[in-house]
Specification:
alpha/beta; 2-enoyl-CoA Hydratase, Chain A, domain 1; seven-stranded mixed beta sheet; four-stranded antiparallel beta sheet; 9 helices; globular
Length: 288
């Protein structure tokens, strides 16, 4: 089982050779999505949705956060019921499950939350957002730092649009922290930043953010137009570690529309679900 990642992409470019997902129209009213959420997932999903679509069955380890928010917005606006048959993790849980006006977690299925994009924002930026003085539309992707900020603001705007309190993610982080400390793990960030001009390109690793920022500024000063493409993999709290909240915890922070929510009786039952659905090597735990 590969690590659970939140993928943060700031353009339509995916660095993977082929999308790791399938989308099928089961019948006139039902669409099934199975696999990662990557750049292009939103566009492909739209191609399968019709005015008659009423239900989206999803099984996903998560992926690209911005794509997931776009998918979630369409699911909500079209009033499509979301049904989790197996597992909905990372950005699938953060956005698609939370946003759907009606959602079902089928028996044997589970959710996995781990991480939020708001952590990329300073307290000042969050305060400005709350006071109506800052929004994602105010920012562009001209520099890596601004691109990160924009994505964090997009998440704040998303949560506000669905009336879910972002403190849900804070509480989940508190639940995860003792496990992280016990396992002596630290969050890791990997990925790359690519600056592209009409006749050249420069590639940097995520840990070379300062160098990429300086290069982008120097190119801009020289009058060279540059497009920035970024892909970041952030192990939201720890690799292969996620939290499965009970229904009461979700509703406490404003999550509505839960039509059915099959929650395990104990940790043993949860582990059986995880092994049955996605195998070993993934640590999902809940409110027990």
């Amino acid at each position: 089982m590969k690590p659970l990642f939140i993928l943060l992409a700031f353009s339509s470019v995916a660095f993977a050779a082929e999308p790791d997902y399938t989308i099928k129209n089961i019948d006139a009213k039902t669409v099934a999505y199975d696999g990662d959420i990557v750049a292009g997932s939103h566009k492909d999903l739209l191609a399968h949705l019709t005015p008659e679509t009423e239900l989206l069955k999803i099984n996903s380890p998560g992926g690209n956060a911005e794509e997931a928010m776009l998918m979630a917005n369409d699911i909500r606006q079209r009033n499509i019921q979301l049904v989790v048959e197996s597992a909905c993790l990372s950005s699938c849980a953060n956005y698609l499950f939370l946003a759907a006006r009606s959602k079902v977690l089928e028996p044997g299925a589970f959710l996995g939350f781990h991480g939020s994009l708001v952590g990329m924002l300073s307290r000042e930026s969050i305060s400005q957002f709350q006071n109506g003085k800052l929004k994602s539309a105010d920012l562009s992707n001209k520099g890596p730092r601004e691109a990160f900020m924009k994505l964090g603001l997009l998440e704040l705007e998303f949560l506000k649009s669905i009336s879910v309190n972002r403190d849900l993610f804070k509480e989940i982080d508190k639940k995860l922290k003792p496990v992280i400390l016990k396992e002596k793990r630290e969050p890791k960030v990997t990925g790359k930043i690519v600056l592209i001009s009409s006749d050249n390109q420069w590639e940097y690793q995520i840990n070379e953010l300062e160098a990429a920022q300086e290069k982008a500024m120097n190119l801009a000063k020289a009058g060279i137009a540059v497009e920035i493409k970024m892909e970041m993999k952030r192990e939201g709290t720890a690799s292969n570690l996620a939290y499965f909240p009970d229904r009461g915890m979700l509703e406490k922070y404003g999550v509505k529309g839960i039509a059915s929510y099959s929650y395990p009786k104990n940790a043993v039952e949860l582990n059986r679900r995880v092994v049955a659905k996605i195998g070993t090597g993934v640590n999902i735990f809940g409110n027990f």
